[in-house]
Design goal:
A five-stranded parallel sheet has the order 2-1-3-4-5, sandwiched between helices. The protein has a four-stranded antiparallel sheet with strand order 6-7-8-9, with helices on one face. It has a three-stranded antiparallel sheet with strand order 10-12-11. α2 runs parallel beside α3 and α6 packs across α7. About 4% of the residues have low confidence. It is α/β, with parallel strands linked by helices. 42% of the residues lie in helices and 21% in strands.
Length: 238
């Protein structure tokens, strides 16, 4: 099936340029410059990826992302008009998976789009492999004291309470848990969780680890589950 991309940007010239280049890559593309329309389009077309500008009239990109994150796990590539770390961090906090500062290289954007869509395909393949011959999911659960990861339902519980995780948080925690006891470098984590051609920096990993600790550690300032190995990376303790 042709993968679908929703482009949300109020610069008509950029809209057209993005649509042209993405269609050349074989993607189906819808565009809009209006925040409210973007939400409705996302609900109707169920895109495989959303490219979302921060600065929009009416609803801005942060609010759109916040609303859509409550309804769907579609990857979001956020565009910002300035190379501002605050914008990046806020974008990650509301659920964006990656970000790019304008102006950007079209080749770089296409590379990131391919990497993000590759992750979507891998996740779908994992879900398919988790199904038995009768079509029902196999039980695939990891338990670590008060932490339980149900990979079939993509559900995480802490102290028997279901905790909401953003898609990338879930992927990161699951990946680390599958490699418990191993020291994982930030670069290795970026390659395996974000994709080998992800162009962001290792601070992305640090930000997500901080969020994970806030959700699974009884004392995030003194973590016992996700341990920092100075100069090397992180280690998950089961």
């Amino acid at each position: 099936m042709t993968e679908k991309i929703l482009v949300v940007d109020d610069e008509i010239s950029l809209q057209e340029t993005l649509a042209y280049n993405l269609k050349k890559q074989g993607y189906e593309v819808q565009t809009t410059g209006d925040g409210s329309e973007a939400i409705e389009l996302a609900r109707v077309m169920a895109p495989d990826l959303i490219i979302l500008d921060i600065m929009l009239p009416g609803l801005d990109g942060f609010e759109i992302c916040r609303i859509l994150r409550k309804e769907m796990a579609t990857p979001v590539l956020m565009l910002t008009a300035r190379d501002d770390e605050i914008d990046r961090v806020v974008g990650l906090e509301v659920g964006a998976d990656d970000y790019m500062a304008k102006p950007f290289s079209m080749r770089e954007l296409i590379a990131r789009v391919k990497a993000m869509l590759r992750r979507v395909r891998l996740i779908r393949e994992e879900v398919n492999r988790a199904e038995g011959e009768d079509g029902k999911p196999k039980a695939e659960i990891m338990e670590f004291d008060n932490l339980r990861i149900d990979m079939t339902r993509r559900e995480i519980t802490v102290d028997d309470q279901v905790v909401a995780f953003k898609p990338k948080e879930y992927e990161l925690l699951t990946f680390m848990a599958q490699h418990q006891g191993q020291v994982l470098s930030r670069e290795f984590i970026l390659e395996r969780v974000w994709g080998w051609d992800f162009i962001g920096d290792s601070r992305t990993v640090d930000v997500h680890v901080r969020w994970l600790r806030e959700k699974i550690e009884s004392d995030p300032a003194n973590p016992r589950r996700i341990i920092t190995v100075r100069g090397a990376g992180y280690r998950f303790e089961g």
